[in-house]
Amino acid sequence: MKVFIIVLLAICLFNTGCKPKTNMGTAKPFKRYASITGLNPDSVQVYKDLHAHTWPLVLKRIKECNIRNYSIYLKQIDGKPYLFSYFEYVGDDFNADMQKMAADPNTQKWWKRTDPTQIPLPDAAAKGKVWSDMEEVFHTQ
Predict the structure, then answer these.
(1) pLDDT in tens, the chain (141 residues)
(2) Whole-prediction pTM value?
(3) How many CA atoms lie within 13 A of 48 on its CB side?
(4) Are 125 and 30 contacting, i.e. CB atoms less than 8 angstroms apart?
């Protein structure tokens, strides 16, 4: 019986279906980020329309800055709209990649369209930011 279990474990470890999930098929780990911001109630449709037609150069820069699996969700809380974002960072220097993104002229133009629709939460506003970082408290695969 022990031999059977050892053989079964060995098969499982070498079978791709049993290997731990990795970042986009690579062995490189990634870090998850989530954030939240308010959304001006009068701008909900504008925000949705902008993101339904996100500029290709902005999407390209996001990938070049090592961001993958990026999503934004909308939720009404007490009659007020909020945005929740989630992405996975696959690079080695988050700050450098975020500086690269912030320096991009197309991204700057995009933010000039999206930022006015958003209402930063107090902690983000105090730092001159639009989005408030969130703490991960649970994750499962």
Answers:
(1) 333 333 333 333 334 333 334 455 555 789 999 999 999 999 999 999 999 999 999 999 999 999 999 999 999 999 999 999 999 999 999 999 999 999 999 999 999 999 999 999 999 999 999 999 999 999 988
(2) 0.78
(3) 10
(4) no
Task: Please check whether residue 106 is in contact with residue 57, taking contact to mean a CB–CB distance below 8 angstroms.
Answer: yes
For residue 60, the surrounding DSSP H or E stretch is helix 56-64
Q: What are 36's two structure tokens?
A: 């939240």
> Quick one: which of 31, 124, 112 has its CA closest to 83?
124
Contacts 24+ apart (CB under 8 A), 131-134: 131/35, 131/36, 131/37, 131/85, 132/35, 132/36, 132/37, 133/33, 133/34, 133/35, 134/34, 134/35, 134/36, 134/84
User: Residues 20, 140: contact at Cβ < 8 Å?
Assistant: no
| CATH class as words, domain 22-133 | alpha beta
Q: Half-sphere exposure of 28 toward its Cβ, with a 13 Å CA cutoff?
A: 11
**Backbone φ and ψ of 58, nearest 5°:** -70, -45
